[in-house]
Every structure is written in structure tokens, then in C-alpha cells.
Write a structure and sequence with these properties.
Radius of gyration: 22 Å
Distance between the termini: 45 Å
Number of domains: 2
InterPro entries: Aminotrans_3, Aminotrans_3_PPA_site, Class-III_PLP-dep_AT, PyrdxlP-dep_Trfase, PyrdxlP-dep_Trfase_major, PyrdxlP-dep_Trfase_small
CATH topology of the largest domain: Aspartate Aminotransferase, domain 2
Organism: Halobacillus alkaliphilus
Cofactor: pyridoxal 5'-phosphate
CATH class of the largest domain: Alpha Beta
Strand content: 15-25%
Number of helices: 16
Largest sheet: 7 strands, mixed
Keywords: Aminotransferase, Pyridoxal phosphate, Transferase
Pathway: Amino-acid degradation; 4-aminobutanoate degradation
């Protein structure tokens, strides 16, 4: 197998598009299970990425695997509407029970970007308005509609000219002037930003919806104050706009509740969900109240593969596991535990800037130990050293300055200890290498 693997990896750049194959770290693996990857090199790696916040109940959870096998024994493909099947109907009923507010009607797709596309189309269709307002730093996908509201990195939009949206600043409590209340500051800034937008660029009656990540994801794991998100809701109501939550990354327990909407006590009009919904099987949904969704008639939106019966079977099993294993509570406990340990690690390392966290969605800023400025080069050096030690993290942030710690929600405190010990050692090795001290 070694020679075959070597040939395949060496030929990867010729067979896979660079935009797909050049992510980090390209770790060749044979198997995954629980919180671990098993490498071709014979080593075991602790996974603090969850497939980018997707395998929330752990890799290849036995109950999910069994559901996939049983589902495949019955049906391999829909398409929903041409036929109808138990797994999709059961999933819709069960999701309606855990969704916030009156969000109870679902259009199933395959990916987060598809769910965002659906949310944008639904909002524009029912309001008959052409524009969406989103937030600077937000990431909502790379298909053209989703890209029009994505601004986490300018390179994603280069040469593509996505249109149809306006952006305002996301909550940045760190920007609050000294002597001011940070929460009050960002709320006041939000009001001013909306007033400025509607005075100079677009009128409210041209805007269909405001789209926001309740926690900024790829843009840097920025956790806004509750009051800021609640003000977004208030402004939407005041100006007569729909509110869309992108919960692709925050959903299915990541913040310690089923959805971040419940963590922040804000209910949107439309929601996009994906990633953790089926633990790695391709599935997503655009969600809205039935009274809103029924205004979206047959033919205005459609899908061939969305709501695949096997993926829906996996999603039903995911809901079982989260409930049976008390993973929401585990997320709160282990997330707080990890954040506290990271603060102690930060005290020992000048390479760490800010730490932001909610549940098991943790961002670790990597900075130059001398200047305190974002340090992308140092980040990848630290990630490589952590991987050599046996733990896998991911990256994010506008300047690629954030290490994302997003382990499966099944993670134990012992595994957090294990992984953060390896991370601490990686930081030490990096700082010794650049002779900081």
C-alpha cells in the first residue's frame, strides 16, 4: 500500500484542482474513528477539526454508520418529489421540534452554500426585493449567490464580480475606545452603520434580508455580544427586513445548544443549516416558517440530489446520538474547560494573542511575539509542529491568523488535555526556534 500511496500523492497535483488539493495539511489517512485519524504512516492523530466542524458526533459513530448501512439497503437516491420516503419525512418532523421559534419547513440540499443560495432566493422571492445586506468578514460559501454575501477574504471574489449585496461591519468589541463599554459601543456602531447604509447606498425597501453568521466562522471565530445580535433582529423588524442566520458551522450543538440562535436568544426568519446535520454525509437545509416557505411555489427552486435518503438516515441517527449522549451539555463543559486551559497556555506564550470561544468553537489568534501583529507564517509553523506531535488543528481569519479548535462534540477532558499538551509543546518548539527568549 505504501508504494501505491506514494504514487497517488505524488500525482495529486496533476489530478486534483489546486483549489481543492492545496489545503493544509494534506494528511494521508487510512481510517477515522471517534476523535482520531489513522495515518498511512502508522501513526494516530487526535483530530481537533471535525472535518471543519462537520463530524460533530465523532468520526464514523457506530449508530450513524449503522443508519447509513440500513438506509443503503432500502434506497440509494430520491429524488425527493418524484418519490417520497420515510427518512426525509421523519427528519423534517424531528428537526421542526428542535429548531428555534416557528422555523418548521425545510428545503433540503447538499451543502452549506446550497442552503445559503436557497435562503437568498427565498427571501428575494417572497419580498420581491433585489438586495441582501451581509457583514464584513462573513463566509457563506463560494457559489455565485453565496459569494455575493461572502467577504471573509477578498481573494474569494477576485475576477468574479458577485453582485446583489451590501456589507456592513461585524461586531468588533476589541475596537471599542478605551473607557467605553464594548458591548454598548458595538450596538451603537451597528445602528450608525445601518443608518449610513440606508442614507447613502440603498433604501430599506430595496433590501430583502439581512444575512449574518451568529458567530463569525472562517472570518476569525468572532463571538458577538448577545445584545449586538439582538439589535440586528430589532433593526430588521424596524426596517421591515427578513433576518437570515447562517448556522452552517454553528448548528447541531457546536455552541452548546442545538443552534446558536438559542445560545444568543435571537430567532431569525430564515436559517441555513448543514455541516453537522449528517456527520459528513452531504446534506443541508434552508429552513423557514411554513407560512413563508409556501410562498415559494413549485419550480421556483429545485434539486436532484438534495435530501438524499441515505444522508437523511444518517441525520436522524445524529439527532439520536446528540440526545442520548448528552452532547450539548458535554460541549458546554468541555468547551469551557478547553478555553480555561488555553488561557493558561497563553500566559506562557507570547505567540498567542486573543482567544475567542463559545462551546467547542474556539479561535486562537497567532501573533508575532515582538510586534503583536497577526502572524500567518508562524501559524502554519505551529500547525505543522502540532501535527508532528500528533494533533490536527485548522486555520481561519482574514489574515490566516486564527487557529481553529473545533473537535467533535464527543471529546473528553482527557483528550483535550492530550491535544493541548501537544499544542503547548508545538508553541514552545516554535518560539525556541525563532529565539524569542
Amino acid at each position: 500500500m505504501g508504494n501505491d500511496w506514494n504514487h497517488l500523492v505524488e500525482n495529486m497535483s496533476n489530478r486534483l484542482a489546486p483549489s481543492m488539493a492545496k489545503d493544509h495539511p494534506n494528511l494521508p489517512v487510512l481510517k477515522e474513528e471517534g476523535c482520531y485519524y489513522y495515518g498511512v504512516d502508522g501513526r494516530t492523530y487526535l483530530d481537533f477539526t471535525s472535518g471543519i466542524a462537520t463530524t460533530n458526533v465523532g468520526h464514523r459513530h457506530p449508530k450513524v454508520v449503522e443508519a447509513i448501512k440500513e438506509g443503503a439497503d432500502q434506497l440509494g437516491h430520491g429524488p425527493s418529489g418524484v418519490i417520497i420516503y420515510e427518512s426525509i419525512l421523519k427528519l423534517a418532523d424531528r428537526l421542526a421540534e428542535i429548531m428555534p421559534g416557528d422555523l418548521d419547513c425545510f428545503f433540503f440540499g447538499n451543502s452549506g452554500a446550497e442552503a445559503i443560495e436557497g435562503a437568498i432566493k427565498l427571501a428575494k422571492h417572497v419580498t420581491e426585493r433585489p438586495y441582501i445586506v451581509s457583514f464584513i468578514g462573513g463566509f457563506h460559501g463560494r457559489s455565485m449567490g453565496a459569494l455575493s454575501v461572502t467577504s471573509s477574504k477578498s481573494k474569494y471574489r477576485k475576477f468574479l464580480n458577485p453582485t446583489g449585496s451590501y456589507q456592513v461591519p461585524y461586531a468588533q468589541v476589541e475596537d471599542a475606545p478605551e473607557g467605553t463599554d464594548p458591548e454598548q459601543y458595538v450596538v451603537q456602531q451597528l445602528e450608525k452603520d445601518f443608518e449610513r447604509l440606508f442614507a447613502h447606498q440603498v433604501t430599506p425597501d430595496e433590501v430583502a434580508a439581512v444575512l449574518v453568521e451568529p458567530v463569525l466562522g472562517e472570518g476569525g471565530y468572532i463571538v458577538p455580544p448577545k445584545a449586538w445580535l439582538q439589535k440586528v433582529r430589532e433593526l430588521c423588524d424596524y426596517y421591515g427586513l427578513l433576518l437570515i442566520f447562517d448556522e452552517v458551522q454553528t448548528g447541531f450543538g457546536r455552541t452548546g445548544e442545538w443552534f446558536a440562535s438559542q445560545t444568543f436568544d435571537v430567532t431569525p426568519d430564515i436559517m441555513a443549516i448543514a455541516k453537522g446535520i449528517a456527520n459528513g454525509m452531504p446534506l443541508s437545509a434552508t429552513v423557514a416558517p411554513n407560512e413563508l416557505m409556501k410562498q415559494w411555489p413549485l419550480g421556483s427552486h429545485a434539486t436532484t440530489f438534495g435530501g438524499n435518503p441515505i444522508a437523511c438516515s444518517a441525520a436522524n441517527a445524529v439527532l439520536d446520538v446528540i440526545q442520548e449522549e448528552n452532547l450539548l451539555e458535554n460541549t458546554k463543559e468541555t468547551g469551557a474547560y478547553a478555553a480555561e486551559k488555553l488561557k493558561k497556555i497563553k500566559d506562557r506564550h507570547k505567540s498567542i494573542g486573543r482567544i475567542r470561544s463559545v462551546g467547542l468553537m474556539i479561535g486562537i489568534e497567532i501573533v508575532d511575539p515582538v510586534t503583536g501583529k497577526p502572524n500567518s507564517e508562524g501559524l502554519f509553523n505551529i500547525l505543522d509542529k502540532a501535527l508532528e506531535n500528533g494533533v490536527l488543528f485548522y486555520f481561519g481569519g482574514n489574515q490566516t491568523e486564527i487557529i481553529r479548535m473545533i473537535p467533535p462534540l464527543t471529546i473528553s477532558k482527557e483528550q483535550i488535555d492530550e491535544g493541548l499538551k501537544m499544542f503547548d509543546e508545538a508553541l514552545t518548539a516554535y518560539e525556541e526556534e525563532i529565539t524569542v527568549y
